[in-house]
Amino acid sequence: MSLIEIKDLKVHYPIRSGFWNRVTDSVKAVDGITFNIEAGETYGLVGESGSGKSTTGKSVVGLEKVTSGSILYNGKDITKKENRRKLDYNRDVQMIFQDSLSSLNPRKRIEDIIAEPLRNFEHLSKDDEKLRVLQLLNIVGLDADALYKYPHQFSGGQRQRIGVARAVATNPKLIIADEPVSALDLSVQAQVLNFMKKIQREFGISYLFISHDLGVVRHMCNNIAIMNRGRLVEIGTREDIYNHPLHIYTKRLLAAIPETNVNQRAAHRASRLAVEKIYEDQQSKYYDEDGMAYPLVQVSPTHSVALPEAIAKQLASQEGEVQA
Amino acid sequence: MAENFEQHSDISAADLARLNQEAQAEATPSTAKIIWNEFKADKPAMAALIIVVGFIVFVMIGALFINTPKMMETNIMDYFDKPFTAGFWLGADSGGRSVAKQLIVGSRNSIGIAIGLTVISSTFGIAWGLISGYFSGYIDWGMQRVYDFMMMLPMTMMIIVLVTIIPHYNSVSLTFIFSIFYWEGTSRLIRSRTLAETQKDYVAASKTSGTNHWKIIFKEIMPNISSLIIVDCTLSFAENIGVETGLSYLGFGLPNQTPSLGTMIANANDPSNITLYWWTWLPAALEIVVLCLSISYIGQVLRRAADASQRQGAAD
Ligand SMILES: Nc1ncnc2c1ncn2[C@@H]1O[C@H](COP(=O)(O)OP(=O)(O)OP(=O)(O)O)[C@@H](O)[C@H]1O
Ligand SMILES: [Mg+2]
């Protein structure tokens, strides 16, 4: 059994308008997605801005009211509030937020911020609690003198470490990491990613790692789902996605990874333009009449793509993949 | 599970006291300290603070030594005594009653009502705004319709009607009547800030940390809008001094035998008092001007203290 099983999850936000303030339409932030997260793995969820990644992540920690579908944890559907409460669900599933500054209460000291989940879920004695907070700070590489400071006294990278410390405090089984490093510069990104990996090894945590950047995900994730306008367009292992991408949207995201080798800049640019041209020309092949992604079809035991069956098979054989 | 953390961190119970002490040395100053520094850096504000606090303490204590019924007895011999005559430091009014003593008791009454009104209406308005803004949806919708209804009522007229209907009212019941009509402004202000604040990720983080709604509202969100609350309370206090004064001036505030700043200013209703017997109303009028100006000056300093970028006081 997987740690988390997401089945046909939909989150629609109603749009109200008119004199009676009635629901006239809805934003389909998440529109029917299905995937599983295994214990101990890092699952990547990638897509451009506005594709519904954060909404998916928030649904999994129970912050979002889902429209339909289910999320199973230990066989219980945690989209229901009372199931979450019975399981003490958030003791096991925590979140690291996209914006580190806004995710830390500016009026609280670091000690109180990190101790918050401990106070609600573990009820330690005062000394034990303080000790645990100091240990957590130590694990994420911050000094003890951070204890009585306020969030604005730290740099972005340090704040994200504090966010990680809070998420790890109750020793959870799964952490939703919502673009944990996208606001940081490259060298700090690498540091934060490395200690997130270290923590994963030491505590046996799974991550749902959300990002818009396939370059970052490559170093973190074994399995990856590509999200586009609320739907998944491709699911596969790292190997499948990086070496045999099938959907044009995935190819675009891959082409958007910045090329660091100066000598290959020109070639990289040419290939990016080529992908962009195919994307412009072949929209109708990759999306249905409404411009939405097709349902997923399996092309290998690990690899699925959102295309009509025939096209998917054809593309897959071109890529030389083993057929399912 | 605790072993798990012991293993991966080189901090153990033995280090606790030492590390705690180190951290304490690095701690940031508290809000109260920051506000105090701000006052120290701004001399006029300090003067305003001393005037307001000193005056309130003076009238609260001074009024205890004055026998109000005896003071309010008419005494024809002292009819419109001039200021600085024997026993009448600020003169006497048409009833031969000491203006200075009336000013002390009257200020006590007026300021007492203003404080009571500010405490009750702000507490209620803040709670209303916070709850309405935090929960949104149906709760917010219902609470805002109540707000709309209250705003629709003609406030001054309602107060006058209530005061006329209720047979024996005193300063306490008057305070409660005022409070019914003075929480709305605060609640709207607080609600709009709460709406914005609730969207921030730290609220989401508190939810995933298992903190319940009430704690999130009053312990997480409220401290973040404390600057707004402090400023709003100070300004409504200044405004509330005017509320009782205005109504008493019109004759619908405190009963006649209870002196207040409003009843004293009402002496100016008589044209001859305005020019000939100026001492009957001028001290009370001046007092209100000075108090309100000082309080709004204090409000500005508090606002500055709350907003880090505008601070003038030294950092420590
Ligand atoms: N509370 C809300 N009400 C209405 N629409 C919303 C709400 N929250 C999100 N949306 C919409 O849902 C869509 C998905 O938003 P989401 O935040 O999940 O995107 P994202 O993939 O995380 O993007 P980013 O990379 O910019 O963080 C967007 O179009 C957004 O406008
Ligand atoms: Mg997002």
UniProtKB/TrEMBL annotation, chain A:
GO terms for molecular function: ATP binding. Residues 4-254 form the ABC transporter domain. Pfam families: ABC_tran (PF00005), oligo_HPY (PF08352). CDD domains: ABC_NikE_OppD_transporters. Signal peptide: none annotated. Keywords: ATP-binding, Nucleotide-binding, Peptide transport, Protein transport, Transport. It comes from the Bacteria. InterPro entries: AAA+_ATPase, ABC_transp_ATP-bind, ABC_transporter-like_ATP-bd, ABC_transporter-like_CS, Oligopep_ABC_C, P-loop_NTPase. Belongs to the ABC transporter superfamily. This is ATP-binding cassette domain-containing protein. The lineage of its organism: Bacteria, Bacillati, Bacillota, Bacilli, Lactobacillales.
TrEMBL record, chain B:
It is found in: Cell membrane. It comes from the Bacteria. Pfam families: BPD_transp_1 (PF00528), OppC_N (PF12911). InterPro entries: BP-dependent_transpt_permease, MetI-like, MetI-like_sf, OppC_N. Residues 107-299 form the ABC transmembrane type-1 domain. Keywords: Cell membrane, Membrane, Transmembrane, Transmembrane helix, Transport. It is a multi-pass membrane protein. The keyword Disulfide bond does not apply. The chain crosses the membrane at residues 45-66, 111-135, 155-183, 276-298. Belongs to the binding-protein-dependent transport system permease family. This is ABC transporter permease. It comes from Levilactobacillus fujinensis.
